[in-house]
Automatic annotation (TrEMBL):
This is Rubrerythrin. It comes from Leptospira idonii. InterPro entries: Ferritin-like (IPR012347), Ferritin-like_SF (IPR009078). It comes from the Bacteria.
Length: 210
């Protein structure tokens, strides 16, 4: 199977061009991005709230929640009457989005357990790896999405959000290097596994966007 990360950028560009041409579908897509950011923020708070909670963790959880709010407001800006929660009919392949996140989290935890990690180190590494892999994907998706938005002279712009995601990745890479001597090879393996999961999600997104 060819990974989404290796596909020509035209594949994602075509998807986004189709999505932004339809305000209803575009608003559902934006709310789906809001859901994914919200899941990320909630996951951080659920797994990292302890005596070990650092400034980085609090800042990251806060920024993920703010990104969720940004996307939800953007969805409403396209359709003022749209007041979404995260119900299935308010999302674009919302079920597939949840499955993508849950399966990736499970893959990361399984691989870390196989490597012998446990306790707080296991929990912290699971957070770092899951978040890093998802944000690597977000950098691909958001960058191409924003390029399409700018080409269309759309009112929505993701430049500041992308910069924040880059900052997250730099911080987490530094932490991974400290805690896991094999982090480079492990991260590459997890990114390869994520590509398969995202391919399934992307295929379903394409189906509803067509």
């Amino acid at each position: 199977m060819v990974s989404v990360a290796q596909l020509p950028s035209e594949k994602l560009e075509s998807f986004f061009s189709t999505i932004i041409s339809n305000p209803v579908r575009h608003s559902l897509w934006l709310n789906t991005l809001s859901l994914l950011e919200h899941i990320g923020s909630r996951k951080i708070l659920l797994t990292q709230s302890s005596e070990e909670t650092s400034e980085m963790i609090l800042r990251h959880a806060t920024e993920e929640a703010r990104h969720a709010l940004f996307f939800k407001k953007a969805a409403k800006s396209l359709r003022p009457e749209f007041k979404p929660g995260y119900h299935t009919n308010e999302l674009l392949q919302g079920g597939s989005a949840k499955i993508y996140f849950a399966k990736l989290d499970a893959v990361v935890r399984r691989e870390l357990k196989k490597a012998g990690f446990s306790g707080h180190t296991f929990t912290y590494l699971a957070y770092l790896y899951t978040t890093t892999v998802i944000e690597e994907r977000a950098m691909i998706v958001y960058t191409i999405y924003n390029s399409v938005l700018e080409s269309a002279e759309h009112s929505i712009n993701l430049r500041n959000l992308i910069l924040e995601e880059e900052g997250h990745l730099n911080e987490m890479s530094s932490e991974l290097e400290k805690l896991d001597p094999s982090y480079k090879s492990r991260l590459k393996d997890l990114i390869d596994k994520e590509e398969v999961l995202f391919q399934k999600f992307f295929t379903r997104l394409n189906f509803v966007a067509a």
